[in-house]
Specification:
By secondary structure, the protein is mostly helical. Helices cover about 80% and strands about 0% of the residues. The protein is built from five helices and no strands. The chain has helices at about 5-10, 20-40, 45-60, 60-70, 75-95. The radius of gyration is 16 Å and the shape is elongated.
Length: about 100
């Protein structure tokens, strides 16, 4: 499992209240899901997209992971690349706010 809270806490600084850290981490998590989904979704066939949506709606994590391994073996790399990009952008944004 990806720990997005610690990098967010590091970017925000130690004086940031925990609810703010959690809120920002949740926002970035949503952005990460969207970015990864968009990137991977652009490579899926219509049939694969329907299968993915069904698995996602059923919240069947085991089947969803097996699906991703089959259709997107580079899924972990895509997730890491998108996470790195989002954290980099977030750090730049926060530095500009100070």
């Amino acid at each position: 499992m990806i720990n997005i809270v610690e990098p967010v806490r590091s970017i925000l600084g130690p004086a940031t209240p925990e609810p703010e850290v959690q809120r920002r981490a949740a926002e970035l998590w949503e952005c990460l899901e969207l970015a990864v989904g968009t990137r991977l979704g652009s490579r899926l066939t219509d049939h694969e997209m329907i299968e993915f949506e069904r698995l996602h709606e059923e919240a069947d994590e085991r089947a969803l992971q097996a699906f991703l391994v089959r259709v997107a073996p580079d899924y972990p790399v895509v997730v890491q690349e998108e996470l790195d990009r989002l954290l980099r952008d977030f750090a730049v944004f926060m530095a500009a706010q100070r």
